[in-house]
Write a structure and sequence with these properties.
This protein has helices spanning 4-9, 15-19, 27-43, 89-102, 117-129, 141-152, 167-175, 188-201, 223-232, 255-258, 287-296, 298-301, 308-323, 326-344, 366-375, 405-422, and strands at residues 60-65, 70-76, 134-138, 158-162, 180-183, 206-211, 236-240, 267-271, 281-285, 355-359, 378-379, 381-383, 394-398, 428-429, 432-433. By secondary structure, it is of the alpha/beta class. Helix 8 (188-201) packs parallel to helix 9 (223-232) and helix 15 (366-375) packs across helix 16 (405-422). The structure holds pyridoxal-5'-phosphate (PLP).
């Protein structure tokens, strides 16, 4: 363990240290060290978290630059606003109308006093989109995953989940200490092996959890094969399609539609924080399943409903999925254009959805590279250790249908420059050489 003195004076630690050794420090000391640690990173231009955005979320945003102490324009490649709905005039019009009719907020959870006709309309529209009987809306996608697992699983059940499953799902599993086993990412043999074992050992249900589009790499689950395995081993499939909804499939229904599996997913979870660019989450499934969740998913029962304005934004977004299908086509064209350009630069990328991951080689200082993107006016997210293993640090590019060809070319030029500038620097993780 690092000593207190080391932790206060030494920069050679990472966020992981705060999660492990740092926890043993008295609280005030821990808070102060972490505060000082981040101030140090910011001063050294190694921390780009919490950049204040001054304008509407769009392909270009204005941010407050903490180093130059000035506003500056940046091309946005770090937002899940895949189809540009965040600032779409029709969405804004519907939000205004909802505010005039229902007011700014609702002031309570749905079971008691937070359920408007608009909430019900959205549940019905989502059910149609997901080819499901019914839908329940949660305050966030995180709450949807947490509530779903905690309500559905029991102590005799087995939960089998992909190793790249989102933290919100994994936290749900941990909360009640359910029997759970993860399988190597997208490894069907590993999944089948665990299922075979669980079929013999488990007294209760078997749940398999996967994501349509994985959030860190943007790759798809082999959903057709997973559905077949679930049928074979009588397992219930929990699909998190946060990044597939609106993006995948001819109508934007999601990854199930992409694989021709409409109506065949047992439990379909999604968020409003990606393509709909607001906040909220949902679970679609059979009527009894949704009815049960309304009374046993604690993150639904004990948390206030989404404001009607947010509900209206999602409803407008669902309409636009149908009325403006060119946006989805444009998104995929933009992704294909960027991927081709990146392959020309030597990157091995084959994205199928709206996310492209650029793996950072061990010879590169990811934090220096992140600042270089920032300096060149490109807003992009870096995913650092301990969020991912040291050797898997990456930049995550989120593509939008509203990006122009010039935007994409500027990103490609910047990637080339940053890679040239930063590749020679010694490898660092969390400010630490390794
Ligand atoms: C795959 C996945 N599931 C769930 C969530 C949580 O959604 P939200 O941000 O809407 O709470 C996210 C968000 O990052 C996600 O990427």
């Amino acid at each position: 363990m690092k000593t207190t003195v080391q932790m206060s004076s030494d920069q050679a630690f990472t966020l992981k240290d705060f999660l492990t050794d740092g926890r043993q420090l008295p609280l005030q000391q821990r808070l102060q060290f972490f505060y000082n640690y981040r101030q140090g990173l910011i001063a050294r231009k190694q921390d780009l978290y919490l950049r204040p955005i001054l304008s509407a979320a769009d392909r270009e945003v204005e941010i407050w630059d903490v180093w130059s102490k000035q506003p500056r324009k940046m091309l946005m490649f770090g937002s899940n606003n895949y189809l540009g709905f965040a600032n779409h005039p029709y969405v804004l019009q519907k939000v205004h109308q909802a505010m005039e009719k229902f007011g700014a907020g609702i002031g309570g959870p749905p079971l008691l006093n937070g359920y408007t006709a608009l909430h019900r309309e959205l549940e019905e529209r989502l059910s149609a989109l997901k080819h499901s009987e019914d839908t329940i809306i949660f305050p966030t996608g995180y709450a949807a995953n947490l509530g779903m697992v905690c309500a559905l699983a029991g102590e005799n059940d087995a939960i089998i989940y992909d190793a790249h499953s989102h933290a919100s799902f994994q936290d749900g599993v941990k909360l009640y200490g359910f029997q759970a086993e993860k399988f190597r990412h997208n490894d069907l043999n590993a999944l089948e092996q665990i299922l075979r074992h669980a079929a013999l050992q488990t007294k209760g249900e078997r749940f398999v959890a996967a994501e349509g589009v994985y959030s860190m790499d943007g790759d798809l689950a082999p959903l057709d094969k997973i559905v077949t395995l679930c049928r074979q081993y009588k397992a219930i499939l929990l699909l998190d399609d946060a990044h597939g909804t609106g993006v995948m499939g001819a109508s934007g229904s999601g990854t199930a539609e992409h694989f021709g599996l409409e109506g065949q997913i047992d439990v379909n979870m999604g968020t409003f924080s990606k393509v709909f660019a607001v906040t909220g989450g949902f679970v679609s499934g059979s009527k009894p399943l949704v009815h049960y969740l309304r009374f046993f998913a604690r993150s639904y029962m004990f948390s206030a409903s989404l404001p009607p304005t947010v509900v209206a934004a999602v409803l407008a977004g669902i309409e636009l999925l149908e009325k403006e299908p060119w946006r989805r086509r444009q998104l995929h064209e933009n992704v294909a254009y960027l991927a081709a350009g990146l392959r020309n630069l030597g990157f091995d990328v084959h994205p199928q959805a709206g996310i492209i991951a650029l793996r950072v080689p061990p010879s590169m200082n990811i934090r220096k590279a992140a600042y270089e993107f920032h300096r060149n006016g490109i807003f992009v997210n870096s995913v650092e250790y301990p969020a991912v293993p040291l050797k898997e640090q990456r930049f995550r590019i989120s593509v939008m249908s509203t990006h122009t060809k010039e935007d994409l070319d500027r990103l490609l030029e910047t990637v080339e420059t940053v890679w040239q500038q930063c590749s020679e620097v010694r490898a660092m993780a969390g400010g630490v050489e390794y």
